[in-house]
Specification:
Shape: globular
Distance between the termini: 6 Å
Helix content: 25-40%
Order of helices and strands: EHEEHHE
Strand order of the largest sheet: 2-3-1-4
Number of helices: 3
Radius of gyration: 14 Å
Strand content: 25-35%
Structural class: alpha+beta
């Protein structure tokens, strides 16, 4: 199992339409249908000293095999996201764990 967790901080000056474009494109990555579990969300309303809720969006995918993860990375829809709506992010941090 490979856990792929991506945190996005969106640029401060994007429009509401650009925000929606990013959100829709990120949520539509689930349609690639290679992850056993896939979730896109925004920070939960939880206040604790150890919680960082400063990001705009979180994307989490759990893949059964490295081959499925690599196929997801190379999928045309994922590549289109990276070259398109991802431009609205000012910062991206990825945590991958197996």
């Amino acid at each position: 199992m490979l856990a792929h967790h991506v945190l996005f901080w969106l640029k401060d000056d994007i429009t509401e339409a650009e925000y929606k474009e990013f959100e829709t494109a990120a949520r539509n990555l689930e349609n690639i249908n290679l992850a056993k579990f896939f979730h896109v969300g925004t920070p939960a309303d939880i206040v604790r000293d150890v919680v960082d809720g400063s990001y705009s969006f979180s994307l989490f995918g759990a893949f059964e095999t490295m081959e499925e993860f690599q196929a997801y990375q190379k999928h045309p829809q994922h590549v289109e996201f990276l070259n398109g709506p991802n431009k609205y992010a000012k910062k991206v941090v990825i945590y991958d764990a197996d």
